Each structure stands twice: as C-alpha cells, then as structure tokens.
Amino acid sequence: xxxxxxxVFEGIDGCGKSTQIDMLAxxxxxxxxxxxxxxEPTATDTGKMLREALSGKVRRTPYExxxxxxxxxxxxxxxxxxxxxxxxxxxxxxxxxxxYSSLAYQGSLCDYDWVKDMNVRCPAIRRPDLCIFLDIPxxxxxxxxxxxxxxxxxxxxxxxLTLFRATFLRVFETLGDRVxxxxxxxxxxxxxxxxxxxxxxxx
Length: 203
Ligand code: TYD
Hints:
Layout: E1 6-10, H1 17-30, E2 35-39, H2 45-54, H3 62-78, H4 83-88, E3 92-96, H5 99-109, H6 112-120, E4 130-135, H7 138-148, H8 158-175, E5 179-183, H9 188-200
Parallel strand pairs: 1-3, 1-4, 2-3, 4-5
Helix pairs in contact: 1-9, 2-3, 3-5, 5-6, 5-8
C-alpha cells in the first residue's frame, strides 16, 4: 500500500486538531513522505461565506449551512490546488475537518439523511482513507477555547458540543468508513503517538 492517502482530522471545537495535524505532518515528512495540509472551511468564496455565518455576523439556517459546507467541500476536492490535484501530485493530504463535521454538526440540526446523502453520495467528494477523531470531553474543549482568548463561534457552547460529540460517535458506527477514535486528553506528545500508531495501519 504505497499510494497517497487522504487522512482527515475531526473533533469538536477545541479538541487540538491543528497541533496534532502539524505533529503528524512533521512525523510523515521525517519518513520522506510529501505532505500537504489543508482545511475546511476553505479559503475560497464559499469558505468566506461560511466564516461570516460561523462568527454570527450573518444569520443562516442549518439547511443553508449544510448546503454551503457541501459546496465548499466539492470545491476543496476539485479546485486547481484542491485535494485531487495534491494527491495526484504525489502528496499525502491531511485535512482539518471533512464531511464527518457536516454529518455531526448540520446533521444534528437538520435532516440527517439529507446531509449524509449530499456528502457521501457525491462523486466529487472523495472518501478518506482514514478519519482521526480526537475525542475530548466538551468541558475540557471549552476550557481550551477560553484560553485562546478569541471571539466564540456560534457552536462553541457546552450543550451544543455535547450533542455534536454524541452525533459524531453515532455517525462512525453507521457509516462504515475507517475511523480511529483517539483519546485526546493527554499531552500533545502522548496524543501524537496514538495518532501515528493509527496512521501507520493505513500507510
Ligand atoms: P474553525 O474556526 O476552523 O474551527 P476548528 O478550528 O474547531 O475547526 O471553524 C470550523 C467550524 O465549522 C467548527 O465549529 C465546525 C464547523 N463545521 C461545520 O459545522 N460543518 C462542517 O462541515 C465543517 C467542515 C465545519
């Protein structure tokens, strides 16, 4: 198994995804692999519309959010600097969030099957080789978010994050994708070792 991999990181807000993505990218590069790091929402026009809604500046319904996130994900796959191009150019791709976030967040707030079908049945949205779910209690996640000192986004409340975490775990049971649920409460190094062990299974 030597072809390039799409590995996506998921978790509730404040779970430590960015730190772990950086650490995994370094570990894979140290083994001579080419790695590209990418994220959703993207930096494109759809990504900008999503950020305005996430900050609360523009109000949107969960249905609008679900459709926008899906469009943003299609762009993320097919853009000239998107996931497909990066994989074909010989890099492993690590994405900060992917369709599991739509299923857990928007799927909790509007018709779940509609959100799921739009994403997993879309031929322009690639199925990842592995999803790393960084699992952390919502209380601890909110403490981390609080320490960042940034303005809170619309979903960053304890009851909302508790609901999303439960939906994530249900999504993983039913979807049949390859998912590693990682305990993300330790030190960054401890968590990174768990992540690397899971990734080694698919390389
Ligand atoms: P971001 O500020 O990037 O948060 P994080 O660093 O935690 O990833 O904002 C992403 C927010 O958008 C986060 O609250 C999760 C949410 N989101 C969805 O609701 N649905 C989606 O499909 C995606 C990709 C993200």
